Amino acid sequence: MSLPIVEMLAAEKTFPGGVQALAPVELSVRPGELIGLIGPSGCGKSTLLKLIANLHTPSAGEMRWWGEDFTRVGEAGRRLSFVFQDPTLMPWADVATNVRLPLDLDGIPRDEARARVAPALAQVGLSHAADRTPAQLSGGMRMRVSIARALVTRPDLLLMDEPFAALDEFTRNRLDEDMALLCAQGGLTTIFVTHSLTEAAFLSTRVLVMAPDPGRIHAEYAIDPTIVRDEAFRLSAEFAAICRDLSALLNEVSHARAAADA
Ligand SMILES: Nc1ncnc2c1ncn2[C@@H]1O[C@H](COP(=O)(O)OP(=O)(O)OP(=O)(O)O)[C@@H](O)[C@H]1O
Ligand SMILES: [Mg+2]
Q1: Are residues 219 and 108 part of one domain?
Q2: Which of 48, 53, 76, 229: CA 20 to 30 A from 192?
Q3: What is the pLDDT of residues 169-205, one digit of tens each?
Q4: What residues have their beta carbon closer than 5 A to ion ligand 2?
Q5: What are the residue boundaries of the ABC transporter domain, all occurrences included (predicted)?
């Protein structure tokens, strides 16, 4: 079996003030996986993602990157990109310049950086919009720019926190289909947080159902990675069965919370 990209070994997070956002988590992320995180608000989904991104340090336990402790690998050694719900583009700069930003920040020579922007834009279907400014784009296109900006650094791991939550259902479904294709063709490993059970069912090769108080992984649900994620899959009995299973797991979590609150 291939080495995991990232491992959480009993990694937990308690914030100053005593909120235990995450009880010890064991997680191993293998190349090519598309992992969906679902669970009620406050169950630690964003905290888990931020531990992996090293935006938070664990209160206890260990984080490993390709088998080595995070502290040994260092920031530059961890090739990952983070996409948030808000695309946060520079409004005065055109699409190509926005996508090029992380390369400019890394000091990549301008010619090389320019050469890498075109394929990243092609990957998200935005080759025709390189010269536009963010104000001239739809919400879905702005999100595509944000994804291209994440891909241009060729990360080993892509993290997305509710990336498509602000988009209408039609746009969201299109982006989900394109993401599935990108991951399948490019071997891109992704962990994404979503409040949409159907989105998790559609995209994931593994779904982690999280529970609150304290935040933890309640259940893992594997989905055949060889399934082609397209419109036919969305309409299939198999997809409906996956959604039913995930719904039942989420019910377990919310019933546990209701019982605790009673
Ligand atoms: N910086 C922080 N300081 C203190 N407590 C925090 C901090 N960030 C998160 N928390 C707490 O940790 C718990 C988990 O928060 P987190 O944001 O990870 O949840 P989430 O599952 O992403 O929720 P949502 O679905 O609403 O985005 C919550 O109780 C939250 O209030
Ligand atoms: Mg969150």
Answers
A1: no
A2: 76
A3: 999 999 999 999 888 887 899 999 999 999 999 999 9
A4: 46
A5: 6-239
